[in-house]
Amino acid sequence: MAFSAAETANPIHGPVRWSWHAHAHGTPTDPIAKAWLAAALAVPADALNLQREPRGRPRLGPPQQAYDCSWSHSGDGLLIALGHRVELGVDCERMRPRPRALELARRYFTAPEQDWLAAFAPGEARDRAFLRLWCAKEAVLKAHGHGLSFGLEKLRFADTGAALTLVECAPGLGLATDWSLHEFAPAPDYVAALAWRDPPPR
Ligand SMILES: CC(C)(COP(=O)(O)OP(=O)(O)OC[C@H]1O[C@@H](n2cnc3c(N)ncnc32)[C@H](O)[C@@H]1OP(=O)(O)O)[C@@H](O)C(=O)NCCC(=O)NCCS
């Protein structure tokens, strides 16, 4: 493992560490992300080789290519994640009433996921379940790099009791069992997910 608790005060989960930052909606995220990533990697900010893929995915280049990063903003917060020897995606959403949760699920989620969501009582329980699933899917699709245009219905999560687990996905995402998911609350009233897998050969 590349990170030890002694190295940082930021929370660590397996090969990934994350950090939560204040962020005003509509303002650039790059300066905040770059500053934290450089500090986490112990390099000067101007030595951080942060690039963008054509679809917008951030990617660290040499000499930091053994690391991967992802970030997500919602409400007034920004969640940044850094992983070692993994392909990584993160998503966060602020909790707020989602009266159209079932309607959106019918449009974007698989049939078993729609049934799972419909079993929750309307209101906060269903809103939270919807956001958990949304974050899980988006985190995988951000790690993959195509983003939402890949299709939220092309991957299916199941609730194993304590957590959501990827159980089925389109071949472009590799094997469902390759993916790890960590769900957490980076701040009160936020839902978030980190998704990662071993980097596929390039
Ligand atoms: C990327 C995407 C998932 C972001 O969703 P969102 O909920 O609106 O935003 P989030 O706050 O969670 O994440 C935004 C961050 O994701 C990252 N990102 C952007 N595109 C990405 C992609 N294709 N894959 C992974 N991460 C991406 C960026 O760091 C972005 O932050 P920034 O723009 O402030 O730098 C969504 O906008 C999407 O899928 N877009 C389509 C990408 C695409 O096909 N673009 C074609 C352009 S040619």
TrEMBL record:
One GO term of the biological process aspect: lysine biosynthetic process via aminoadipic acid
Superkingdom of origin organism: Bacteria
InterPro entries reported for this sequence: 4-PPantetheinyl_Trfase_dom, 4-PPantetheinyl_Trfase_dom_sf, P-Pant_transferase_sf
Cellular component GO terms, alphabetical: cytosol
Record Pfam families: ACPS
Record has Transferase as a keyword: yes
One MF annotation (Gene Ontology) recorded for this entry: holo-[acyl-carrier-protein] synthase activity
Residue ranges of domain 4'-phosphopantetheinyl transferase in the record: 88-194
Keywords tagged on the record: Transferase
Homology family: Belongs to the P-Pant transferase superfamily. Gsp/Sfp/HetI/AcpT family.
UniProt protein name: 4'-phosphopantetheinyl transferase superfamily protein
